[in-house]
Every structure is written in C-alpha cells, then in structure tokens.
Amino acid sequence: MLLAPPILLSQRKTETDDDWVRRCIHVDKYRDFPVNNLGAWHGGVHIPHTDAGGTANPVRAIAEGEIVFCRYPSDRISEDPLCYLGETDDGVVLLRHTLTLGDPEVNIVFYSLCQHLKQVRRNVLEGVGTLIKKGTILGTSGRVDGKNGFHFQICCDDTNLQKLAGRSTGNLDISKPGRSDITYGDKHYYLPSGTPFMASPDEKKATRPPLYISDTELFVTFTNKKVFTRQENPAGSSIYTKLSEAGVRLPAVPARDYGETVTWNEAEWICANYPGGSGWVKMTAPGINQYSDADFPHWTGWSLVDDDSNADSQCDSPVIQQWQQQIKDEKSLKEKYFYAICRFPFEWDETTVDSRFSWLKQDNKFVQPAFNPPSWDKFLNHANALSFFGKLPADARTALSGRVWHFNPAAFIMHINKASQVEYIAVVGTQIHNDPANKLSFIGQAVRYMRKYMQEGNRGVYTVLIFEEGYEDKHYAMLESSAMKFGFKYKKIECNANLFKYLNEGSDRHCIPVKQLSIFCHGLQSEFAFGYKYAVSEKLSVNLQNYTMINENIFSRLGRINSYACRTAMGRLDGHSDYEFTPKINESLAQKMANYFDIPVFAYVIRSSYADTWGARSQRLASKVIKDPWFEKLSLEREVNIKLCGASYNIDGALNDVGAGTTPYNLTDEYMEFLPV
Question: What does the pLDDT look like over 564-575, one tens digit per residue?
Fold first, then answer.
C-alpha cells in the first residue's frame, strides 16, 4: 500500500519523496502533534489551507479504505456552538484502511480522519460502508477558529500497533535480532561495546590488532547509498547522534565463477564509522544483531509513549515532559515529536468530553484563569458539537475507545511508504545486429538502468522483460550474472500480448504500481519495434494501434516512461529517413502515451544511438594514452565475454547512456519531455 498526503502538491524535480510529504502536510505550529500550545494531547495536525483562489486543492483519501463515517458540514459556522474562537467547520470523513505486510501476510488496520471540512462530496456521504480508492476527493478544507485549515490524524488500536511495530511499549529489545516475518526499508545493526573495527575484511588477517574497539554501544544504518553510525548522546534525552556518514563499501570478494560476485544482501562485512575513524565490522559476529525499519528502531528516532495513565486530555507523560526539559532547541524537539507514537484518548468522543477536559476548570500554567461555569459550558458545547464517537458503528467504537495510538501523519506516511513497493521495469527488444559490439547493447543498457536506480537508493521491485527472439542461452547467462549481482529479476516474453499481460498484472499491480518504464529496442516512427526485421515483428510491436492494451492506471502517481527507441516522438508516419520538416510530434506515440497514462514520457524524435554503450571512442583513445586500469579491466572483461557468448558485455551493464543519433536532419537531438495535455 503506497500512501499519499491528503493534499497533493506538485513534487519538485530536486525534492525527495519524504520532503514532498512534509511539504504537503504543512503544519500550523500551534496545532501540531502530539501536544498543542495548551499542553493538551493533540491526536493529529492542523494543515493550513484554502479552498479558493490560486492554491485551491481538494482533500483526498490517503489510501484505499472503507468509509466509516461522514458528517455533512453545518452552515452555521458563525454561530455558537461552532464559533467558539472563530468560525469553525465541522465536516468529517473517517476512513478505515487495511495494510498487508510480511510473510506470512499480516493485516494491519488503521484509521485516517479529516475534520473541519467545508464540503464533503456527495458520493462520499452516500458511500458509508463502501471502499474508495486512494486519491478520491473527500471534500474541501474548511476553517478552524477563524483560520483556513483542517485537522488530519492517523491512529490505531493496541492490537494493530503490536502487529505494525512488533511491540507496544518501550524501546526495541536489542538483546535479540529483529523480526524476520516483516522486514523492509533500511538495515540497522546493533554493535555492543567491545566490537572490533578491522583494517581489512579478511578472515585470514583477523589475528591482527583491530583499528578500534568500541567502548560504547553503536548503531549502524546501512542503506543502498550510505552507511552511517549513531551513538547515544551523553547528555541523555534519548537523542542518538550521527558520527558521520559515507558511501557504501563492501569487500571485494573473489568471484566463484566468472562474473559472479557478492550482493549487498549477502555481505558479512561492512565498512562503518567509529568515533575518529572507520573500519570493517563483521556483521554476523556474535552479539551483533540486525534489524530493519519494520522494527521502528528507537535510535532512528522512534518512541512509543504510553506512560500517561490519566484518562484526561492533559499531557502528563513523564517522557514528553523530560524531552521538554532536556531538549532546548525547538527544531530538535519538533523532530523528536515527529517520530513519537503516543497513546492517549480519542479526542472526538462526546461521552468523555467532561472528564477529559475537567482539568481546564482548575488553575494551571497553560490556562489562566481557570474556566468559570459560563466559559466551561461554552467550551463543552463546542467540543460536543465537533464530536461524533457515539455515531460510529460498533466495531469502530471498539477500536477507538479508551486510549488509542496516534501517529504524526507525515511520519506515518513516510514510514509505511518504505514498506510499500513500486516497480522499475526495463523492456529489452530483439537485436537485428549480430556483431559483438551491438548484440547485447539493449541488455547492457537495461542493466545500467537497473544498477543506476538501485544504487541511488530507490526502493522497489526491479524487473527486466526481454523478448526471446534472437537471443540464446549464452546471452541469457550474461543477463543472469548481472541479475545475481544487483538483485533484480528478469523474465522472458514471447510477444506483445505477454508484455501487456505483465504490465497490467505484474505480481500484484494493484499494490505494486509501475514507477518507471524504460524501453530499449529498435524503433520506427511512433513504434516500439521490439522484433525489428524478424519474421514475427508484428506480434512483438507496440504502436499507435495497440498501446491502449495496457491499462491506463498501472503507473504510480510519479510514474514516467523513458523511451530509448528511435523516433518514438515522430508523429509523421510517412516521413523521410534523412530529412524531415514536419515531424507532427503532437500526434506521436510519445504524446499519445503521455495523454493516455497521464504521466511524462521522454523520447527522441530522431534516431537514438547505442554506439557508446561499451565505451566512447574518446574513452578508448584516452585509455591507450594514460593506461587507465579501470577502463582496461572493463575491456578485458568484454574480451572474455566475446569468447564465451560471442558478444561484448560487462556485468555492470553499459558504460555510457543511450545518446541521440543524427537523422532525420533538421530536427532537435534533445531527449524530449512530453507532458499530458
């Protein structure tokens, strides 16, 4: 399940997914999570927004879910009891979502709530008890205390918090390894005091003195891009400080067979930082335990706060109070709050309003003077007008009664999306050119694409789809060696019907949408000629007549298509091969697919060029002069593979990207972006 914020803003090109989520869920600093400015528990955040003007944007469902409860907003927001501190809308939509994780699968139920909506869509109001899709418009943002904005929260009960986090109290138990039934996201390692850091990842040299022996507990996080070490701040407050970070370094393990090497998942040794340096640690050594993001490690910021046993709404948590006393920097305190998962009463229960807020009738540091009878009655009427617990179905009342676990919505969405998957697909066409330099050029480019996105830390499923025509077992052996090294899968397909079926269904396309579809093949005007000049070419072709055999909704919200075929952006089908003055790009397959899938498509209007796949002429000439060992090693590897399979190949894939060709002349050689119109 891939979650989205309730407000969707355009993602900037340089913006990470996490940064985008935070920007979409922009928070009123006085109505933040988990404590508001009056020292009371606050189960969600207020998102400042407007439902009119240039920034108009509807409120949407964050994921597929069941409509549990809706309330159509009152038109008397300027009168009591809604107008307590200013105009306040009371439109509500409560959704129940089911998240499936793990092997064997575990279903985890959580609720999302949008309160203070100005409008609620009729189809939502009439759909209570039915499922709606992610992104469905629920309504529009309203007003809270005279300000534009709405309340958004995510919560669950004890049982489902236990399923999700593997515990329902305290820090992660570092005396034993993490869960094996649910794993996702980054890897984390607990290094006990006394862990040796070696100069080399070599068992034969293990008798040599270590570079460093830790004198405190250290925590190493291992991602596809970086390795960094944390240690607990000596000042306390459960803050874990990064020592430093570095790129991933794994040992160079001699290949057991040609082209086979160790993968990241198999690595026993990792080069990690310690105070003052770095060294190699054997992560399978006794006492070192491994975890994943699924364990919600406390050293990454996660805290389960359940120490406020009072049934009222005042925050009396010793943990929260300790943070407030020890963390003087407001930004650091906000970040600590961000990853807190807090257990306190559901705030929209009219049956407990009196008992939960009775502390306001007594003098305290947040409310002075205390509420007198008239002010208390006015507040009580306002709180009751916004509440709805008694109108919920019985199962929802059971789940949301008593003390409930609340999440910062942005933190929850960012975290669950680590467990959610998207798919990166490369499609490889047949190659009519059988000379060694060209035979495996499409495969090489597909592997380069897989390697690039995996090493950039993009989480997901990686798949190469390869048309069988013209390739032999010795060629597949080359692709398989790369798949083993980088951990992607490949699948042979016979015809375009097989391609359409996989794109539409995948392993579970409903849960795993396509984020990137990259195409490496021959091309004609507005045609992916996957079987170019083969007798079965028509059965392999994807063109203007059949691309709609692919379902229009297979892509994720940030999906895109990258065509590295010739002339995908050429809309004129009877054009000349060398000269062209009217390419009709608006009628091209690239533009048609952008419109149909509602995503960007990148393509050439001229021929593409795979000439530099295994190295440009300038690189070869430079290598002869400076004797670059890196380039010479790749050249030697290709020479060996020519003897093995009759074609140039490097296990890491292509050395250079696909480039632009030269014809038809008079047209741009730009890799063009086509947006939906």
Answer: 999 999 998 776
How many Cα atoms sit within 13 Å of 126 on the Cβ side?
Answer: 3
Residue 73 lies in a domain: yes
Give how far Cα 136 sits from Cα of 4, 93, 140, 271, Å: 11, 12, 12, 46
The answer to whether position 552 is within a domain reads: yes
Which amino acid is residue 517, in one-letter code?
A: L
Specify whether 412 is located in the same domain as 433.
Answer: no
What is the C-alpha to C-alpha distance for residues 425 and 404, in angstroms, rounded to an integer?
41
pTM: 0.75
- Asked if residue 155 and residue 60 are part of one domain, the reply reads yes
Domain that holds residue 41: 15-166+301-345+399-416
Q: Are residues 24 and 56 in the same domain?
A: yes
In sequence order, the 6+-apart residues with CB closer than 8 A to the CB of 170 are 304
Instruction: Give me Rg for the CA atoms of the chain.
Output: 29
Mean pLDDT by 10 residues, the chain (677 residues): 88 83 93 91 92 74 96 94 94 96 90 97 96 92 94 98 94 94 90 93 72 94 80 68 58 34 53 89 92 95 93 92 91 94 96 92 84 93 96 97 96 91 94 94 97 79 95 95 89 96 87 92 95 94 97 90 97 74 92 96 97 87 70 89 95 95 91 96
Q: How many CA atoms lie within 13 A of 346 on its CB side?
A: 27
The neighbour count for residue 202, using CB atoms within 10 Å, is 12
Whether residues 519 and 656 fall in one domain = yes
| Domain finish residue from 389, 416, 443 | 416
